[in-house]
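Now for one protein, fold included:
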Amino acid sequence: MTDSRSDTRTPTPTALVVGVTGIAGSALADQLVEQGWAVLGLSRRAPADRPGVTALQADLTDAEALRDVLADVRPTHVFLTAWARQDTEEENIRVNGGMVRDLLAALSPGGSVQHVALMTGLKHYLGPFEAYGKGETPDTPFHEDEERLPYPNFYYEQEDRLLEAAARDGFTWSVHRAHTVIGAALGNAMNMGQTLAAYATLCRETDSPFVFPGSQTQWDGLTDMTDAGLLAEQMVWAATEPAAADTAFNTANGDVFRWRWLWPLLAARLGVQPEGYAGSPRPLEEQMAGAAPRWREVAEREGLREADLDRVASWWHTDADLGRDMECLTDQARSRAAGFTGYRSTLDCFLALFDRLEADRVVPAPR
């Protein structure tokens, strides 16, 4: 007979990844499985089979559905990476704040949650879409202790609902303010890396230049970005490191760059002719108007996974990021001081992503 008092094994932690089909959620699920966690993946749409992930399906805006699906679920750690874009910030606040509130309320009776990690972003410093960068914003690099801007903002609402639930249920929390996240995920609403790969494909098809769509400020100024794998590393670290408890962290790769340097390098890899800023922004939504039929032709000819261009590219989001008329980069000192030293080369992240998208038949390789 085994003496249970001598069994010092640590129980396997169980992660609930909310938004498992998205850029951040899929990267998180992969990393957690690799590290030996038990992983539950929650999404609105039925996810594709992911090795090591138990799929859960529910509409995150339906409190009753969440209670039903999560009634017997006992995660030790929750990773919130999902959001639902609405027409106004008032609706963003109602819907996205409600998702955080209702999900954590559904898990509350089980009493199992030890930590909740919430992914947000730099609209915390820049303002919501309706007031994006239009008022006074903090000096760069952005620091986590900046005062909130005087605008309604769904990120603030999500944080408030997180802290409210933490006070009620006694778990620790972390918030991760990522910059533009690049990764692989079909159907994602904010996906610059995949958008640029699709844009380059259509440029090759029409023998058109690969035109930088954004502002002169973004073309000439310093900026940074966030790789989905790096974001996943930081979220898992914060969920398991006592020094990171109850803290908000900026999340970026750790390098800075100028688009006027990076754009030609991306163009060379994608097999297109780069064209930089030339007097005014040239948004992708305008450049790519009416491109869906051409994409469908390419998808059928090349055997691509997705013929619906809207599920591959998010023109509006890339236009918003590259069209900003202010410098945008973050300070990483807080996470470094707490012990997180993760780093990525942004150029290498783009190149690796393009390799993956081609291998997965999301976009065709240049000929």
In short: Residues 89-107 form the longest helix (19 residues). The longest strand covers residues 115-121.
